UniProtKB/TrEMBL annotation:
GO terms for biological process: CAAX-box protein processing. The lineage of its organism: Bacteria, Pseudomonadati, Bacteroidota, Flavobacteriia, Flavobacteriales. The keyword Hydrolase applies. Its cofactor is Zn(2+). This is Peptidase M48. The keyword S-adenosyl-L-methionine does not apply. The chain crosses the membrane at residues 6-27, 64-86, 98-115, 149-167, 173-193, 286-308, 328-349. Zn(2+) binds at residues 276, 280, 354. Pfam families: Peptidase_M48 (PF01435), Peptidase_M48_N (PF16491). It is a multi-pass membrane protein. Gene3D superfamilies: Metalloproteases ('zincins'), catalytic domain.
Amino acid sequence: MTPISLFYLLVAIVVIVFLIDTLLDVLNANHYDDKIPEELSDVYPKDEYLKSIAYKKANYKFKIFSSTISLFIMLLFFFLDGFAWVDNIARSLSDNSIVIGLIFFGIIMIGSDILSTPTSYYQTFVIEEKFGFNKTSLKTFFVDKIKSIIMMIIVGGALLSLIIWFYEITGKHFWMYALALISIFTLAMNMFYARLIVPIFNKQTPLEPGELRNIIEAYSKKVGFQLKDIYVIDGSKRSTKANAYFSGFGSEKRITLYDTLIKDLDNEEIVAVLAHEVGHFKKKHVIANLLLSILLTGLTLWFLSLFIANPLLSEALNVSVPSFHVGLVAFGVLYSPISEITGLVMNIVSRTFEYQADNYAKNTYNEEALISSLKKLSKNNFSNLTPHPAMVFIHYSHPTLLQRIKNLRE
């Protein structure tokens, strides 16, 4: 294969992935006005349902517009030798390969973030604001951006530096050391995310003593779930949408409730949601997802080790000096079809886990309370009640509301 043929293969992959995603979005949008299944007829009042359809259509149209612009910018970057231009800037600032790689990705990542800011702004302050979801202030929006960039520089920069260093000292065997590093990092994030990362963006407070805490603790004791912490997070700082999640394991496991969840659901419904989260822990889904993630990361790094030393990757992007960082960009595009397939497999596994967690909640608590909570959350989040089956199969990490209700009532 010649550099020019590889270049056009990269461009073709970018365009084909865009076209497939767009086709799925179009198919999904054509189902927005479908008749609501009988089992879901009580989710929305008629006026609210019409508003939810308008919300989905607004998001759909904006996604098509913004993704088309993103594709256009990406193709311009390819055809105008943007990667070679950034590489030249990085090389003009340092002779150290690790520093060059950091500058290269720093320019691309920060540039990408700046270009995506108008999209994020419109999504938050126009669409979400129009339909009553947005609670984010302008200050919070930009402070979040700055915090995210700082974290990306510190954490992402440290990981990238070590991976490039591994490559320089071990050659094609670098993937094993990189996998060990990423596995340790992933494990640490699973353990300490709620303690270290969440407080950077949100305030967490222990759930106050009272009826809700008593019911949660009684349920936890009943099912043998040793619960150390129950926290409430100020999700209403940014949105009216509600959520709850389980994080960590061992001595670091905790349940976190969004304050909007406490506001929207009654105590029985909240405990039913928590019973679902406890189900994930009892069924060892947290560990299974962690192992699957590490396995897929290892597969990706192994494939990368087979191709990264080939100068053809850099030459295809018109970069004169072959390097790890440029090869990584080309490989990322080449690997994207495989990534789509592994993502599909992960979603299938995830949906299976969701059914299992629902069944656990049904068997240990109350399926009708869980069904009621799912309906309320779907209504309050303007969830799509009639998604296209292809969209569900490829992109949904959770079963649809209808599928979950049918499973719970079997």
